[in-house]
Amino acid sequence: MLVMQLLRGAVKHAGSSPQFSVERLTSAARGFSSSSQHLSDFGGTPPPPCTDTEHPKILITGGLGQLGVGLAKLLRRRFGKNNVILSDIRKPPNHVYHNGPFIFSDILDSKNLREIVVNNNISWLIHYSAVLSAVGENNIALAKEVNITGLHNILDIATDHGLRVFVPSTIGAFGPSSPRDPTPELCVQRPRTIYGVSKVHAELMGEYYHHRYGLDFRCLRYPGIVSANSNPRGGTTDYAVQIFNTAVKTGCFECNLRSDTLLPMMYIDDCLRATLEFMEAPADSLLSRTYNISAMSFTPHDLVQEMQKVLPELKVTYNVDPLLQAIADGWPMVLEDIAARRDWGWKHEFDLSELVQTMLTHITSSNQRAQAN
């Protein structure tokens, strides 16, 4: 009703203004609808959320990171190739571009993002755009802009259009004052990185939007993710990915964390499956909007010992990075995920030995194919 009053006033003014245009009227209306105050604040009714009786139309932001391409592949198998749109601000590799819809999307451009949601009838939004822990400490301004301002755009647009929205959190959302072994679902969270601070902010803002506006917000605290298909992007747990590629190529590896640094980890297939299962879980089964998920915890020493069962000549040295070590020392050692297993049936499949076997097999096969070509 308030929107109509504003438009009627603008039309009335148009008759006495030679400079008035339809474009300006449309722009004014659009600017009002995208403000931080939502329709429900004025007694209006926001769009209904998507139902589970139809295939969702899904947008993944930050899609060229560690998880986006793999999740798109999984979701396309589940819901159909054309129902999953991958997006990023970078040009995709050819194999990504030709495997399904890909578009440019900048989460800091709210107007562009809103047009994508409307024009493509999006019903689920997977928000993977983020600046990770180590990179964020070296560029705090960028981390604040992407991780906080970008998040606000996502939440506003998701609320205005009745979307189901997924925002990942991290073990980095905990800090030195959090219980570390194990780290429960609910405890003090005082992270000391801008990445961790921004993720606590995301958890709280998402839950606020859920309670205030009814937004179907969902969040999983991911452990360190190990994947053979993606390059490390500046995370503290990246050593657990780098070691496999380097070990297969050279037989040597220099680790930047202490050998006894215990951290929660998960193989990427478990992570992606958990995300899909969580997104499909009925809303009334979720007693929380933010859950821990875990699979295993190991140290660099544990990982090396398991790898040496297959690569007995592997040599590992340690050259500790003080920044990365300080970050890791404030993170959980073991992540408690009782609630996820109880509420929506989460269950991991890969332990350390299976992770090592799978990673080495995948990387060795990839290298052989590359050499053959």
Automatic annotation (TrEMBL):
Pfam families: Epimerase. Catalyzes the NAD(+)-dependent oxidation of L-threonine to 2-amino-3-ketobutyrate, mediating L-threonine catabolism. Its EC number is 1.1.1.103. GO terms for molecular function: L-threonine 3-dehydrogenase activity. It catalyses: L-threonine + NAD(+) = (2S)-2-amino-3-oxobutanoate + NADH + H(+). GO terms for biological process: L-threonine catabolic process. It comes from Champsocephalus esox. Residues 58-293 form the NAD-dependent epimerase/dehydratase domain. CDD domains: TDH_SDR_e (cd05272). Belongs to the NAD(P)-dependent epimerase/dehydratase family. This is L-threonine 3-dehydrogenase, mitochondrial. Pathway: Amino-acid degradation; L-threonine degradation via oxydo-reductase pathway; glycine from L-threonine: step 1/2. It is an enzyme of class 1 (oxidoreductase).
